[in-house]
Amino acid sequence: MPDTGFMTTAGHATIFDDLVGEITQHYHRGRVLIAIDGVDGQATGQFADSLAASMRARSRSVVRSTSVLDAAAERHDLSFPRYDSYRADDDHSRLRDIVSRFREGNLDTDSSVAVIPADAMLIIDGRFLLRPELRGLWHFGVWLEGDLHLSDESLEAQIRYTRDSAPRGAADAIFDVTKAEAPARVWADSC
């Protein structure tokens, strides 16, 4: 059978099932916060959605949050502002509020109060989430690498972030998402 470059549905599911197994092995109790960081907002969102679907297939309660441009800071919306530049003075108060309310077990969503189960997982995707000032929020961090062409300003921000914050080294798992339909685990250890 010729290699088409596309991963089978079973192969795709296996990648996420393996990641869920790794996360739940280390964090089988309590509310767990997972960050999916990467340059490409579409890739981080798809990856986070696939991870959430795999967790739900294992009967885990999952809450999703994502960064969006000009996110409304409404209490009923689980989105937070996306930053395309990397600055020390970025305001992460909205993100911290979502995390805090999740930890407390109560999230206001869609005009109702959602009581979060004690073993729920919050999967957050966005850019610059593995920066030093946010690392303490996450139990598990995923870094996504890909082949996205960036504007000069965005490329400069990414270089500065990579150099100053070393997100790859801070990640618990690294995936190459050059082929979004076939993410590949990157083993970056020294063994």
Provide an overview of this structure.
The protein has 191 residues and is an alpha/beta fold. The model is unreliable at 1-7 (pLDDT under 50). It starts with 8 loop residues before the first helix and ends in a 5-residue tail after the last strand. The protein has helices at 9-26, 41-57, 93-104, 132-135, 152-165, 167-170, and strands spanning 32-38, 62-68, 79-81, 106-109, 112-115, 121-126, 140-145, 173-176, 184-186. A seven-stranded mixed β-sheet has the order 3-2-6-1-7-8-9, with helices on both faces. Strands 4-5 form a two-stranded antiparallel sheet. Helix 1 (9-26) packs across helix 2 (41-57). The longest helix has 18 residues, at 9-26.
